[in-house]
Specification:
Strand order of the largest sheet: 4-5-6-3-7
CATH superfamily of the largest domain: 2,3-Dihydroxybiphenyl 1,2-Dioxygenase, domain 1
Distance between the termini: 29 Å
Order of helices and strands: EHEEHEEEEHEEHHH
Shape: globular
Radius of gyration: 20 Å
CATH architecture of the largest domain: Roll
Number of helices: 6
CATH class of the largest domain: Alpha Beta
Helix content: 25-40%
């Protein structure tokens, strides 16, 4: 889901050692990091601070092992493994701090992303309103939309199917997909929406399913 996530580290070797240790518990070795990277910070590009990065775990047991291996290696605890129903009903996460104080989590729930190493990112910012305006400005071209908007946080959710293609106007089917995604974002929240409900709601989808579109 994320094309690339790069952390700039005060001590690259130390940070890579941390991520080597904890990601191995999820079955991810250094050569499998893909779009996740740790690079050396310098005077022009300072170390990453205030970032939370959630890595998808296939099971709760692997969340437990992620946290256990990290704390056993001397890394700082940022939250023991356990349910976090304030996010979604079956959310289960364990949290650690990397050498620069960024929060790293292993997370498992029914909707955890399976198309990449990174499930989600949170960024602590000095000015929430200004940061929200920035991400809202780039959202139409980056393929994500504002999903959560409270005084404490702004949450964005990716929707690659809604991403514009080379500035072209969407065709009928792409426009339908965008409408359906907007409906799901507006109504789903923590509930699941069935295909049957979508078919009932969108007449154009009925035609598509029946082969008449």
């Amino acid at each position: 889901m994320f094309h690339r996530v790069t952390l700039r580290a005060t001590d690259r070797d130390a940070s890579e050692g941390f991520y080597d240790t904890v990601l191995a518990t999820l079955g991810i070795e250094r050569g499998q990091w893909g779009g996740f990277a740790v690079v050396q910070a310098d005077a022009e590009r300072p170390a990453t601070r205030g970032l939370h990065i959630g890595f998808g775990a296939p099971t709760r047991a692997e969340v437990d092992e992620f946290w256990r291996a990290g704390t056993a290696a001397g890394y700082r605890d940022d939250g023991q493994p356990g349910p976090r129903p304030e996010y979604v009903a079956d959310y289960y996460g364990g949290f650690l701090l990397d050498p620069d104080g960024n929060s790293a989590e292993a997370v498992h729930h029914d909707g955890v992303r399976r198309d990449g190493l990174v499930d989600h990112l949170w960024i602590r910012v000095a000015d929430l309103a200004a940061s929200k305006r920035f991400y809202e400005a780039i959202a139409p071209r980056a393929g994500f939309r504002l999903r959560t908007d409270t005084p404490e946080r702004a949450g964005f959710r990716a929707c690659l199917r809604c991403r514009p293609r080379d500035g072209a106007a969407p065709g009928p089917r792409e426009a339908l997909v965008r409408r359906i995604c907007a409906y799901i974002d507006e109504h789903a929240r923590d509930e699941r929406i069935s295909i049957a409900e979508l078919v009932r709601t969108f007449e154009a989808l009925q035609r598509f399913v029946s082969g008449r579109a």
